């Protein structure tokens, strides 16, 4: 990713925080078999400071949208406390195969990480798992698909993907939890918005939205997404 490309993905910046529009398909940090990752490209986001910003949380490799970065240690600590207290609101959009059973609701289904020889691991609903809560709302329906908004109230790995499958409407492009592991195309999950409380007495609250990427925008437009939305 070039300097111009990473700079163009800055959605918000102040003295404490940067919110970045992460592209789908790019891991946020290094890992086994992950030589290319977002942290390699954060240098230009220092904007004259001694160090570039650092990750305040994570997004899956295949998820696009709002990613929060802290610009210094104090900001990262404050953001960490807000995440631990579930005070940072996150909104996701997805394209689902099928639809939830109503127009809105809440999933309260514990999630357990399970190792599987054929795929490595997956997350599934299991009473022995960790508590997981997700609110959801249907924004559009058509031709066997649904445009669903998700608001996770806990931060479990693959929470939205597992809860969507639990509701009977797996995310399109989800090779692990989806209806068809061989389904072609990218994962249709986007971190649409974040809301951050003030990080200090003189700081304003932060609210940021990320436009859906082209592969998701086209699908949601068929379900009623207004093309004039940012």
TrEMBL record:
Q: What is its EC number?
A: 5.4.99.-
For this UniProt record, give its keywords in alphabetical order, as a comma-separated list.
Isomerase
Give start and end of each Pseudouridine synthase RsuA/RluA-like domain. 16-166
- Per its UniProt record, what InterPro entries does this chain match? PsdUridine_synth_cat_dom_sf (IPR020103), PsdUridine_synth_RluA-like_CS (IPR006224), PsdUridine_synth_RsuA/RluA (IPR006145), RluA_PseudoU_synthase (IPR050188)
- A GO MF label: isomerase activity
Query: This protein's superkingdom?
Result: Bacteria
* Major enzyme class: isomerase
Q: What Pfam families would the database entry show?
A: PseudoU_synth_2 (PF00849)
Isomerase as a keyword of this entry, yes or no, is yes
Q: Which family does it belong to?
A: Belongs to the pseudouridine synthase RluA family.
Protein name from the UniProt record: RluA family pseudouridine synthase
């Amino acid at each position: 990713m070039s300097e111009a490309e990473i700079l163009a993905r800055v959605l918000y910046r102040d003295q404490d925080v940067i919110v970045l529009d992460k592209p789908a398909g790019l891991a946020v940090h290094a890992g086994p078999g992950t030589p290319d990752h977002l942290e390699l490209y954060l240098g230009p986001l220092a904007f004259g400071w001694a160090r570039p910003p650092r990750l305040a949380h994570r997004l899956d490799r295949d998820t696009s949208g709002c990613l929060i970065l802290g610009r210094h240690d104090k900001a990262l600590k404050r953001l960490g406390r807000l995440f631990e207290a579930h005070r940072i609101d996150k909104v996701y959009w997805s394209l689902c195969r099928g639809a939830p059973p109503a127009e809105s609701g809440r999933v309260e289904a514990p999630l357990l990480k399970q190792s599987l020889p054929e795929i490595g691991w997956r997350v599934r609903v299991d009473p022995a798992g960790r508590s997981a809560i997700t609110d959801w709302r249907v924004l559009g329906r058509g031709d066997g698909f649904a445009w669903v908004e998700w608001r996770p109230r806990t931060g479990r790995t693959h929470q939205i993907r597992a809860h969507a499958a639990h509701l009977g409407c797996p995310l399109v492009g989800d090779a692990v939890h989806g209806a068809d592991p061989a389904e072609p195309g990218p994962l249709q999950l986007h971190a649409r918005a974040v809301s951050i409380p003030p990080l200090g007495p003189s700081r304003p609250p932060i609210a940021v939205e990320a436009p859906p990427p082209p592969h998701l925008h086209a699908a949601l437009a068929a379900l009623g997404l207004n093309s004039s939305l940012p």
